[in-house]
Design a protein that fits this description.
Blueprint (H helix, E strand, L loop, with lengths): L1 H15 L12 H17 L6 H15 L8 H5 L2 H31 L2 E2 L5 E6 L11 E10 L4 E4 H4 L3 E4 L5 H6 L8 E6 L20 E11 L13
Antiparallel strand pairs: 1-2, 2-6, 3-4, 3-5, 3-7, 6-7
C-alpha cells in the first residue's frame, strides 16, 4: 500500500507541479535527470486515464500541499482509499484485453492443434527435447521471444544474443508450468492468459493489464540445484 501511494503520489508531484508554468529548457545533466524521473513516473500514472476533474483535484492537492495550505479533507483517511480506485480502474481497463485474449487462446488450441491445461495455459510442443524435464526448483537456461496477441514483440533474448538463467519457481505461473513440459533441447510455444501472467496490473509500459502473452521458448539447459537469480526485465 505504501509503495502504491508512494509511486502514484510521486508521479503526481513530478508531472503536475509545472502545470500553468512555461516549459523549461532541459540543458544540464541534473535537468535531464529530473526530467527523466518525472517523465517515467508521469507515463506510468497516465495509464489510469483520469477524467479532467480527477486530474484537477490531484493537481490542486499537490499545489496546496507544496504551498503549506490547510487540508480541505482528512487526507490520510481518503488517501488510503486510493488503492481501491486504482484496482477498479485497472480491472475496467483490462476487461477488453481479457476477452480478446480468450478468443486468441481458443483459436490457438483449435487451429494449431495446441493443448490446454487445467490452469488455462495453452501450449504446443515444437520439439520435445531429451532427458528429464525440469522441476519447479530447478534453474533453467533458455532462449525466448515474447509477444502480445497482436504480434508486437515486447522482449527477446534472441535479439540480445544472450540466453538467460532463472529458477522456475520465481517467474510467472505460465512459465513455471509450461517449461516443465519439455526436456533439454526442447522448444515450446506458450499462450499464457493474464491470470497466469501479470493480471490486471500488467507490466507497464510494454504489457497492458489483462494481456494474454505468447512465448516461444527453447530450453537450452537444466541447471539442477543452482540457486540462480531473477530474470532481468519482465521477470517471466
Amino acid at each position: 500500500m505504501k509503495k502504491i501511494l508512494g509511486l502514484t503520489l510521486a508521479s503526481i508531484l513530478l508531472f503536475s507541479c509545472n502545470q500553468g508554468q512555461k516549459p523549461v529548457k532541459i540543458e544540464t545533466d541534473d535537468d535531464k535527470t529530473y526530467y527523466s524521473v518525472g517523465y517515467l513516473y508521469g507515463k506510468r500514472f497516465a495509464e489510469f486515464k483520469l477524467s479532467e476533474k480527477e486530474s484537477a483535484a490531484l493537481m490542486q492537492g499537490v499545489r496546496e500541499g507544496i504551498d503549506g495550505k490547510k487540508e480541505q479533507v482528512k487526507t490520510m483517511e481518503f488517501a488510503m482509499k486510493f488503492k481501491d480506485i486504482v484496482q477498479k480502474k485497472m480491472a475496467s481497463k483490462s476487461t477488453g484485453e481479457i476477452e480478446k485474449g480468450k478468443k486468441f487462446l481458443a483459436d490457438f488450441v483449435a487451429k494449431e492443434g495446441a493443448k490446454k491445461t487445467e490452469s488455462g495455459l495453452a501450449y504446443k510442443i515444437i520439439t520435445p527435447g531429451k532427458g528429464p524435464k525440469p522441476k519447479p526448483t530447478d534453474t533453467v537456461k533458455v532462449h525466448y521471444k515474447g509477444t502480445l496477441i497482436d504480434g508486437k514483440e515486447f522482449d527477446s533474448s534472441y535479439k540480445r544474443d544472450k540466453p538467460i538463467e532463472f529458477p522456475l519457481n520465481r517467474v510467472i505461473k505460465g512459465w513455471t508450468e509450461g517449461m516443465q513440459l519439455v526436456g533439454k533441447g526442447g522448444k515450446i510455444k506458450l499462450v499464457i492468459p493474464s491470470e497466469l501472467a501479470y493480471g490486471n496490473a500488467g507490466a507497464p509500459p510494454s504489457i497492458p493489464g489483462g494481456a494474454t502473452l505468447t512465448f516461444e521458448v527453447e530450453l537450452l539447459d537444466i541447471v539442477t540445484g543452482k540457486t540462480g537469480g531473477e530474470h532481468e526485465g519482465h521477470n517471466h
